[in-house]
Amino acid sequence: MAHHQILLNGESREIPPETNLDTLLEIFSLPKQRVAIELNNRVVSRKNWPATIVRDDDKVEVVHFVGGG
Amino acid sequence: MTDTFSLAGTSFTSRLIIGTGKYRSFDEMKAAHKASGAEMVTVAVNRVPLDGKTESFLDHLDPKMKILPNTAGCYDADHAIRTARLAREALETEWIKLEVIGDQITLLPDNEQTLAAARVLVKEGFIVLPYFTDDLIMARKLLDAGCPAVMPLAAPIGSGMGVQNPSNLRIMREQLPDATIIVDAGVGVPSDAAIAMELGADAILMNTAIAEARDAAQMATAMNLAVQAGRLAYLSGRMPKRLYASASSPIQGAIK
Fold first, then answer.
1. Which one of A34, B2, B52, B53 counts the least CB within 10 Å of its CB?
2. What distance in Å separates the CA atoms of residue B27 and residue A58, rounded to the nearest whole number?
3. Is B215 helix (H, G, I), strand (E, B) or coil?
């Protein structure tokens, strides 16, 4: 089956079909602690990451914290 | 004298809240945080870089510090609401410094969007601390929306111009005697912080004035003292201003 095209943090990326949010972080070597994920503008809570499948054309934002005022 | 600063059920000894941006190094930031005596620091929500270079910024903060995430970089209510929800999910905190910017040059707040976002976030259980223009009517609306404090600006973010409109702060203090007012943004030097506190602000939030000082830690100490001095002055009640002199030494009995 063809790879899915997604928008990850504003950048176009390809992922295997049936990738869930938990494995998405692993695929792209992203941290899992003290981050949050938004799928198509809705926050997905941590406990739902493994059950949430990322689909073609999905928009995913993975955020963490940086210095700010 | 016990003069604690209470905000949404949390007590603070320090009335100085500081940022974590613009420091030249983590060591410098840590030294400044320690010197400031602050018990709460702001952080920003940002995309995780995809290049794999992800150092955990939060590891550089004193674990005793309360972390106040902000919605910096948001230009409408919808983005600010989404950012607040992400911050709550990642940090497991209801606290949010609500910042909706209206203009890239001035970074002045969009009060209308700020109020709209505040109403939504309060309903979702957030403790919303809104940054807004120093305007009494807007302050009232934000408090009515359920914000536990309001955070009027002294001057544009990062400008270091100091309290540009002391009358507005005085009016806000006098008309909202029970409100918690935190002056956020625009402080440049300790005297600015002292002036804001003398006018009756309950606390000050600053970042650039400390982070961009040549010696950030030393400036943090100075700000800590200024906030305390201003607070004590406010509690003490200032002398009236007079156009003409009023002799301090007795005039009667002076030799002729």
1. B2
2. 39
3. coil
User: Do residues B96 and B70 lie in contact, with contact meaning Cβ atoms separated by under 8 Å?
Assistant: yes
The mean pLDDT value of chain B amounts to: 96
Residues of chain B positioned with their CB less than 8 A from the CB of A21: none
The residues near B214 (Cβ < 8 Å, ≥ 6 apart) are none
C-alpha span between B227 and B16 (Å, rounded) = 7
Q: Which class for B123: exposed (0-12), middle (13-18), buried (19 or more C-beta within 10 A)?
A: exposed
CA distances from A15 to A23, A35, A40, B52 (A): 10, 20, 16, 17
Distance from CA of B8 to the nearest CA of A (A): 20
Q: Give the burial class of B62: count Cβ atoms within 10 A of its Cβ; 0-12 exposed, 13-18 middle, 19 or more buried.
A: exposed
**B18 neighbors B42 (Cβ within 8 angstroms):** yes
ipTM: 0.94
Q: Is A14 on the interface with B (CB under 8 A)?
A: no
- Give residue-wise pLDDT tens across range B120-132: 999 999 999 999 9
Chain-chain contact of B21 with A11 (C-beta, under 8 angstroms): no
Question: How is residue B128 written in tokens?
Answer: 């919303």
